[in-house]
Amino acid sequence: MGRSLTRWGAFVKIVVSYLPQSLKKNPLRAKKYRQRLTYHNTVTNLSDLPVEIINFIAERLYYIDQIRFRAVCKRLQSSIYNHIKFADRLPWIMGYNSSKEIHGGLIYLYEPSQKRRYRVDNEILVGAELHASKFGWLLLSKKTKSSTSPHSFFFYCPFTGEIILLPELDMGDANRATFSTAPTSSDCVIFVISIHLLSPKDVDYKFFVSTCSPGDTTWRSNLRLYETYGGLMFNVAYVNGVFYCAFHAYQMMGAYNHALQEWKVHPYPPVFKRPIVFERPPYYFLYLIESPDDRSVILLSKHYTGPAEYCLNVFRFDQSHMKWCRIENFTSGYSESHDHDDEQTVEIENLNKRMLFYSDLNGLSLAAEGEASELANTTHGNYGGGMVESSCLLQIYDWVHGGDGALLKKVWIQPPHTR
Amino acid sequence: MSTAATADASSSGDTTEGSVRLLTLQSEDGEVFEVKETIATQSVTIKGMVDDDCATSTIPVCNVTGRTLAMVIEWWNKHEIGAVSNEKELKEWESQFDTIDDKSDRDDVYDLLMAANYLNIPTLLDCCTSAVAEAIKGKSTDEMREFFDIKSDFDEKEEDALRKENQWAFEN
């Protein structure tokens, strides 16, 4: 609407600036008249372009180029809006030295458009444990000396250096955490699943879901259960009001609906039910991937059938019908040993023009648009201190492994949408 | 709309050639161009005037020079449906706008950007913003200043403060 009004303004200007006949006979007067009506002179420098056009240009730049473009001169700095889009189609990677806690407060940002690594250090990161990476923000916690609330949580944006402090939480030995929206937005909720395995100081309850929002002084304990679900968890995800957790031993996914304060568990798709027999015990890793565009959570399973052989299976959890659909076009090396009877009970669908990025701590489903269109239907895994594995010949992140890159722990990270 | 065009055909500056109506555009420096209505309405601004029956006499495009308007009309001609046989050929023709290494190329692109924005021609605006963005990509702030001939007007203190905000991005 606003845009069409601007256009209407331009149109009115054209009509108004139509030169009256009398002026045509007096060229000098006509020239003056025209100069008054013409609201710009010929532009000979980029920085003299109207604000509107400067922003059209800036939103076609990658995040890294935007930062540098803004710093060119005062006019560009003041013209470029704070909330503009950027051209980045692929996520960045954050690398850090860690066993559990970040060493030395040093992290690296791997920028995919120029395939370059940047160094960020901040003292606040020393000894911090990383829980989630979303919307350009990291959710971290540090152990405190306090005996009652031993973990202090905070957000840190490595792109801008901003820090948002959160209340302290008494957390179990097994825990996972994530958040709903950027911490700068008013509806951001932080979710922590915490299971007390070793110190049963709370005899009644062992399993907690706690939430808080930026600005709160305490956490709310929303859910308490006697169950531990085996204690082991893969990653967690938040999609469309529901906080999901992939349990390890119990072969089910927990789902906590924040608005309804309702907890449910859903068994995994039937292909997981039957243990696969190998010489060594087979193992698999599960990754939850957030797919906010279609309001669903995606489960990617990586079944290792040999030391370096695995097959990928991708399922989508239909939130409204509470059922799993197998996504055919992401499946690779579907194992013969799977029970085909079981397979038939799962509906099959395709998810076109998407790219899936998964890691130990986060998973993203992104549209394969523009220059990323050749990466449609590909998966990119990034975990532990290993390599980034792409399911396609185009190994877009192979450059990350240079130097000490292969040894670093890695998660996906996207530049923040606000500065 | 077509009936309105026939009814208005008698008024000055509005001529028809066969069944195609011609519009008369006058540039800032007085150059007059006759353009098929079907082509000129690639400009959302002109389309609005045609739809509202305001395009019956000469349309002054007072912020655009004759030189630039000629380039705009060439763009319209190439982008008329059926003018170019395939998308590849069109992209090849458009690629002439991609290089803006010379000052004169840059000046043309700025003029075209102003015209495309003023006349609201989405395809042309898209092509020109992308050409400028491509030239910016991968350059350091100093390289951008040199390429686009922009002098930094930050004093040393301001420049330092600016770089501190995103220090990592300015380190090599």
Automatic annotation (TrEMBL), chain A:
State the InterPro entries in the record.
F-box-like_dom_sf (IPR036047), F-box_dom (IPR001810), KIB1-4_b-propeller (IPR005174)
Name the SUPFAM superfamilies for this protein. Answer: F-box domain (SSF81383)
Q: Which Pfam families match?
A: Beta-prop_KIB1-4, F-box
> What range(s) does the F-box domain occupy?
43-89
Domain of life of the source: Eukaryota
Q: What is this protein called?
A: F-box domain-containing protein
From TrEMBL, chain B:
Query: What does the sequence similarity comment in the record state about its family?
Result: Belongs to the SKP1 family.
Q: What is this protein's record name?
A: SKP1-like protein
- Species the sequence originates in: Dipteronia sinensis
The chain positions of domain SKP1 component POZ read: 22-80
Alphabetical UniProt keywords: Ubl conjugation pathway
The organism sits in which domain of life?
Eukaryota
Per UniProt, subunit arrangement is: Part of a SCF (SKP1-cullin-F-box) protein ligase complex.
Signal sequence, renumbered to the chain = none
SUPFAM superfamilies noted in UniProt: POZ domain, Skp1 dimerisation domain-like
Kindly state a single biological-process term from the GO annotations of this entry.
jasmonic acid mediated signaling pathway
Q: Does the keyword Amino-acid biosynthesis apply?
A: no
What is the documented function of this protein? Involved in ubiquitination and subsequent proteasomal degradation of target proteins. Together with CUL1, RBX1 and a F-box protein, it forms a SCF E3 ubiquitin ligase complex. The functional specificity of this complex depends on the type of F-box protein. In the SCF complex, it serves as an adapter that links the F-box protein to CUL1.
Q: Which Pfam families match?
A: Skp1, Skp1_POZ
Named in its record, the pathway it takes part in is:
Protein modification; protein ubiquitination
